[in-house]
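Journal club side-thread
Mid-discussion, someone asked how the predicted structure for our own chain would compare to the paper's figures. Pasting it here so we can look after the session.
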Amino acid sequence: MFIDGEWVHSTGKLQVTNPATGEMVFEVDFGGRDEALQAVDAAKRAFSGWAEIPAKQRADVLLNVSRLLQEAKDSLARVITMEMGKSIRDARGEIQMAIDYFRWYAEEARRVYGETVPHSASDKRLLVIRQPIGVVGAITPWNFPIGMIARKLAPALAAGCTAVVKPAPETPQSAIELMKLLERAQVPAGVVNLVIAPAEVVSDVFMQDSDVRKITFTGSTEVGKKLYAGAANTVKRLSMELGGHAPYIVFEDADLDLAVHDLLATKFRCSGEMCTATNRIYVQQSVADLFTEKLTEKVKKLKVGNGLSEDTVVGPLVNAAGLEKVERHVKDAVERGAKVVTGGHRLTGGDLSSGYFFAPTVLTDVTNEMKLTEEETFGPVAPILRFETEEALLREVNHPRYGLAAYCYTESMSRTIRMMEHLEYGMVGINDPLPFVVQGPFGGIKESGIGREGSRHGIDEYLEKKLVSIRYEK
């Protein structure tokens, strides 16, 4: 662990296995409440010094981090793939995302502007200044183990906050490697701290310690609700990116070849283990058979294997629990009448026998009564539902709880505007499977999240507004 600028050891150990091979690839120290409290204390002590550093100097540090990330891109990608299984190409894409976030917020650090407010008395002047909120507790997931830390740390550091990072137990080495780069970039001691410990222990410290003024979390809606309730004790600021259940809508006027091509990116990238991954595919009745035929042809050709192989497209699922959930969802769908067009089973032959591999799957005759239409599957399964009209679609597609991302394919500008306005999701891609860019706000609505990450709005999550009224002699 990395606390107050020092590498801290613990008697506890955590072993990390490669989900493609079952082999242990890393062993790291595993701490507890004491380390979490030490890290919060270090971040508190470092806060005033970091907050007072001129924005340009903070920006220079962030730019240095982005440069070091670029230099270590390939080695970092290998660590990610060994820990959680995604293809090496997807892992490199994740590192590029981290680079982009540090670069972007190096620029935004210089743009934390205040305001002057029209006064109501001739001997007063009103100002609004924006100041860093304080110590941030960041809890990050395993599916983007460096990218998600970057998306939280970059704006926090740019704003002048200090942080304690708690990574997922599946991917601690990725976080350690990033901390090494932050140390090399000369981030001052205590400004960023890393605690590897049980989630319930660290989250309890974050929720109860009044020195932690903000919690930022990416993960499940269930855990998010617990943090939401616990943070009320000290009325902390929260930003959370929670579960998604993204619909992918294909209208009869869509470019079907484009829609099929793009679905591969949003369904099978990272083995489907993304909050923004497509979970429900709605295809208009008149083109459903043709779309299914075209999609199945492409899915059958997807290369499944160890993510370290350059030609792998779909790697293993992260662990046995993830694999079992996918199997359970597919089994439930089939029992309720769905048909397996391709895939539908675990892969166990040859080099795949020791890993958590599930065949890329296409299901038809899917209905709303099935588990995979009500819960995130988090795996390489593409369930196809049919609809007749736009009105009928909207009655089904807007989920009462989820509202992270949605995708829509149509060549009609009128329909584009209607769907843009009526889809109840925080992010909508029209003929675009990857609308997520550093300059755009990332986040959901309803039970899919609070606040936004990325863009100029992302840094606001780490700043407080303070009114200053100055009375003076004229």
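Post-session note: The chain is about 40% helix and 20% strand.
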